[in-house]
Every structure is written in structure tokens, then in C-alpha cells.
Amino acid sequence: GILARVPLYYGILAGKYTAETTFPSDDHRSHTLPPDTMRELAPRAACVARLAGVAPGADFARWALKFALSHPAVSCVIPGARNPQQAEANCAASDGISLRREQIAAVHNFWQQDAYLRQLRTPL
Fold this sequence. Notes:
By secondary structure, the protein is mostly helical. The chain has 6 helices and 2 strands; from the N terminus they run E-H-H-H-E-H-H-H. It has helices at 29-32, 35-52, 58-70, 84-92, 101-113, 115-118; strands spanning 2-5, 74-78. The chain has a two-stranded parallel ribbon with strand order 1-2. It is globular, with a radius of gyration of 14 Å.
């Protein structure tokens, strides 16, 4: 099985950041998510939330974790957490309730059709 590391993509798939978000130079995300990357990824994350039918924030983070866990090759996700509440919310994503197939299909289709996402290294 696959252990999915950083399944919320540094918080982008939790709806925490916008296209205008910048990180301080001493934050590792300033290298991983420079401004040009944020301008590309944040709007796409919002689009995925709309396709999933969830609001950005905790509901989207939970959905994103469930989405990663829905892949048959994924055994476990390893999301970050800054406090006990986030850790509990992350654990709640593995409640055994499956996502709707049409949501998964819509996100897969978006991933395959979007030129920017298609160039990323990790295929679905």
C-alpha cells in the first residue's frame, strides 16, 4: 500500500490559503509554494472544493483526506496537525463513509483535463 504524505498539500486542500498568500522566507513553504505556484494552485483547490460540493475549510480538508483514502492503493494518509483539534478532525476523515462516486469522478476528470495539474509529478 501507499502512505500518502502531505495529503492536504501544505494546507492548500484545507482551504487555508488564497492565490495571494505568501510565506516568510524562513518557512519551508516559501520554497515549495512560491507566489507563482500559489496563483496557480489556490484557485484550482477552490474549484475542486466546488466539484466536491463542500465549503473550503474543515469540510474540504476532511473531503480531501477521504479522497486520498478512496484510492485503492492508498493504505494511510499522513496529514500535518498543529493542535489536538486538527489531529482529531484528520482522524475523523477515516470514518468509513465513502465519498460519492460522481464527486470522485468529477475531481479525476478535472485533474486529467487541467493542463497545469497534468504537468505535476503525481498522477491519480
